[in-house]
Amino acid sequence: MVKFKELTEQYLENTRYTLAPSNYRSQKSRVNNLNKVFGKKNISAIKDEDIAAWITKQHQFWSNKTINEHLTVFRAVFTKACKNKYIEHNAMEGICNLKTVQTEPNPFTKNDVKRVYEYDAECFIARAIFVLGSQTGLRISELLALDWESVNFKNKTLQVKRGVFKRKYRVPKTSKSRRKVDLNDHAIAILERVFELTGKRKAKTIAVLCEDNKTVRKETVSFIFYNSKTKTPFIDGSQYAKTFLTPILTNLQIEHRGPGQLRHTYASQALTAGINENYIAKQMGHSNTQVIRDHYARWIDEDADDNADKLGKAFDVAFSTDEKPTEQIIMPPGASITGNDADLLAALQIAISLKKRPSMLAAINGLLGSSGGVQ
Questions:
Q1: Are residues 44 and 158 both part of a single domain?
Q2: Best label site of 4, 8, 190, 317, fewest CB within 10 Å?
Q3: Which residues, in sequence order, are CB contacts of 302 under 8 Å at separation 6+?
Q4: What is the domain count for the chain?
């Protein structure tokens, strides 16, 4: 009789080189959780009602998303058992994933970014990582693995070549993630200041895991960011958050968020500014704009422009004339107004503006009716 644990061990062995190390560790943890309950049981003795009872029990401990991730292991194990004729009936048939709620991004505002950047009580490099993340949309793992060889100050670009997690370096998981990112003037200014601190440090040789999750190549790199407390490159985003970001946000009384929200900040601010979705997707390493629409299109009211005014400006060409601007007609240069004159000026500006725009005037008269139109 085949035990459940035997099949989960086979499952882990089969996925060892198909999953990224971080994903493999997560899957191994899920397998261990399931083996605590089902490991010693014969696979043929596990019924659908056993799995349903297990799901019910987990509701008080785990989110639906976490339960679903364990169901993925269950399905793989029972599918394997069926193919190998260890069981006649797949106990996972009819057991569906639970509904999940997508967590809405909680990006930082421009004021948050400004306050963190100006917080002199913390080391500059920690603040530079924060600001550069908001200006580039890089993942925190990509930010911390950047090297000076990847930065082109002349062309204002940087190349994303790798990420870091728990001291392990690996190439980005998709070809789109291996990308060239444009740098705005703020990002360039930040990097120029950081270069004064780390630009001359001795290069290090690191091992980088390749796309096949097996091949490891050696690279000699000059890291951009160093942990000022350990004097070594950052281990991963969790270390950065625990050591620097969380204390900074606490001291500034800014709502706590993880460093992953810097990526959301970039996307949300870019969308707010009206930047093309295809460009944003390319900058962030996505293959299409669907992810942008689904995950990063958070509207930041505090930073949003007056869109009614923006639409009006877009239609200016339809109503444009060669006349001088209204305020120049009403008031000569250097003149000033006080008190109730402001109301009169506003009324005159509107009147003159409408006279210059017969199409708009006609539309307004049409709405008001023939008896009470604007004269």
A1: no
A2: 317
A3: 109, 110, 111
A4: 3
Record the pTM. 0.72
Q: What are phi and psi of 137, to 5 degrees?
A: 80, 15
Q: Which domain holds residue 158?
A: 110-303
pLDDT in tens, 275-313: 888 999 999 999 888 888 777 654 545 555 565 565 566
If asked whether residues 134 and 283 sit together in one domain, one would say yes
Structure tokens at 278: 């295809």
Give yes or no: residues 258 and 159 share one domain: yes
HSE of 264, CA atoms in CB hemisphere, 13 A: 19
CA atoms within 13 A on the CB side of 30: 23
- State the pLDDT confidence band at 330, using cuts at 50, 70 and 90: very low
| 264-294 burial: b if 16+ Cβ within 10 Å, else e | bbbbbbbbbeeeebeebbbbbbbeebebbee
- What is the average pLDDT across 344-365? 58
Considering only CA atoms, which of 34, 41, 42, 37 is closest in space to residue 76?
Answer: 34
Element (H, E) at 218: strand 216-221
Distance CA 298, CA 293 (A): 9
d(CA 350, CA 352): 6
> Angle at CA 112, nearest 5°, toward 111 and 116?
115
Position of tokens 């924060």? 130
